[in-house]
Structure formats: C-alpha cells, structure tokens
Amino acid sequence: MDGIKYAVFTEKSLRLLGKNQYTSNVESGFTKTEIKHWVELFFGVKVVAVNSHRLPGKGRRMGPILGHTMHYRLMIITLQPGYSIPLLDRETN
Predict the structure, then answer these.
(1) What is the reported pTM?
(2) Most buried among 15, 31, 50, 75, by the most CB within 10 A?
(3) H or E stretch at 11
(4) Into how many domains does the chain fold?
(5) Inter-CA distances, 63 with 22, 55, 60, 67, 88, Å
(6) Which residues, if any, are the signal sequence (predicted)?
(7) Are strands 65-68 and 72-79 parallel, antiparallel or unpaired?
C-alpha cells in the first residue's frame, strides 16, 4: 500500500461516493491492475473498474533556480454494489 498516497475529498469525489466510487492519489508509476489488486487485497472488496488520470507537477521557483513538484496519478476506483471501504465511507463519519 505504499503506492496509495491519500484519499481525495473534493466536491466531485464526495458526489462519486454515492455511486460507490472512491478517489485517491497514487504514485505515478503504478498501473491500474496493480492498484486494483492492492485495493482488493487490503480492503477485502471487489473492484469493478479503475479509472486514472495523470496530473502534471507544478513549477516552483526558489530564487534563480527553477524546479517542479512531482507529478501524480488520480485514481477513481469503482466497487461492486454492496461493498464499501470503511475508512472512506461517509456514513460512518
């Protein structure tokens, strides 16, 4: 589970929770099948689909030196009906 950084809570991700879809940021080197395997193994759920979007890093400047932040991948994980991830379930919060 080192590849999954954190869960994303935006207006869109909260709306997707009603459709049994969970959103999280992951390391950019991981594939959809690897994330699907880790989510099924770690949380004990059945994953129907995994959608991904690679977000670019932002440019940063420190004086005359130009740099950038690391890019990351946004994953939307769709679970089978009847399954939920308890840590991210909005009904328990």
Answers:
(1) 0.75
(2) 75
(3) helix 11-17
(4) 1
(5) 39, 25, 10, 10, 40
(6) none
(7) unpaired
Q: Which residue has the tokens 């308890």?
A: 86
CB atoms within 10 A of CB 88: 18
Name the β-bridge partners of 72.
55
Q: At residue 57, what is the residue type?
A: G
**Which string of DSSP letters, residue by residue, matches 17-70?**
HTTTEEEEEE-TT--HHHHHHHHHHHH---EEEEEEEEEPPPEEEETTEEEEPP
pLDDT in tens, the chain (93 residues): 567 777 888 898 889 988 999 998 888 888 889 889 988 998 899 999 999 888 888 888 888 988 887 777 889 999 999 998 876 555 544
